[in-house]
Design goal:
This protein has 228 residues and is of the alpha+beta class. Helices cover 47% and strands 18% of the residues. The protein contains four helices and four strands; from the N terminus they run ααααββββ. A four-stranded antiparallel beta sheet has the order 1-2-3-4, with helices on one face. The longest helix is centred in the N-terminal third of the chain and has 89 residues, at 13-101. The radius of gyration is 46 Å and the shape is elongated. Mean pLDDT is 76; it is low at 20-25.
Length: 228
């Protein structure tokens, strides 16, 4: 082999190894960059999901707050109407008591003589349909108050209280005998002789409702006493 041939021989594997190592280093560097990009993308996606969840939670909290505030306003409004209605019932109670005290005799006697004399604010005790025995007085139902004025079964007075206007209806019945009287009330007392008075008790039912239909109606029961 000549010197020229010796100088032109092919390079050995050891001669190109550094080049292969350099190429490998470039590949490792490129892979690291791709891994870093993937990790950053995942972090950004997680942050977006968390932001959406926080926004949803805040929105739900605001909606719940508005709902509770609206309910509080309605409750306060209804309570104001009911308190005013309670005050309005006092007017009807005073009117009913005045009518009772102005009678020259017991309303039971006047009603027996003429059942229209005290209409529509007075009604006798209900009786057992089979025996005719008087029953204990009971508060009228809600449906009774809806039509009692048009059916001539109760009296009514308009009452204005503050900014509210009410239609207040009332009805008086005897409190009943010892067996049928309203529980917890005194028994009628009959007296004879000079300066001895008789006492009878009556139950008054009063219902107040907002004239325009707003709010809730209020029904109260009171015992009235008549002395003769």
């Amino acid at each position: 082999m000549s010197r020229w041939d010796k100088d032109k021989r092919p390079p050995r594997l050891a001669d190109v190894r550094p080049q292969n190592i350099a190429a490998g280093a470039d590949s490792v560097s490129l892979g690291s960059e791709r891994l870093g990009m993937t990790t950053t993308t995942h972090e950004q996606g997680a942050a977006l999901v968390i932001a959406l969840l926080v926004t949803l939670a805040i929105t739900m909290a605001i909606v719940a707050l508005l709902y509770l505030t609206h309910n509080d306003v309605l409750i306060s409004s209804n309570m104001a109407v009911q308190n005013a209605a309670m005050e309005a019932t006092d007017v009807a109670l005073n009117t009913a008591n005045t009518q009772l005290q102005q009678l020259t005799t017991w309303p039971e006697i006047l009603y027996t003589a003429n059942n229209q004399a005290l209409s529509p604010w007075y009604a006798p005790l209900p009786t057992n349909s089979n025996t005719g025995v008087p029953l204990r007085p009971t508060a009228p139902s809600g449906s009774f108050w809806q039509n009692c004025v048009s059916n001539n079964q109760c009296a009514s007075v308009p009452v204005n209280y503050g900014s509210y206007a009410f239609t207040v209806e009332y009805l008086i019945q005897p409190a009943g005998s010892l067996a049928t009287q309203v529980p917890g009330n005194e028994q009628n007392q009959s007296g004879t002789g000079q300066n001895i008075h008789s006492i009878r008790y009556y139950v008054a039912y009063v219902h107040a409702a907002n004239t325009n239909g707003g709010g809730l109606g209020v029904t109260v029961q009171a015992i009235l006493r008549k002395v003769q």
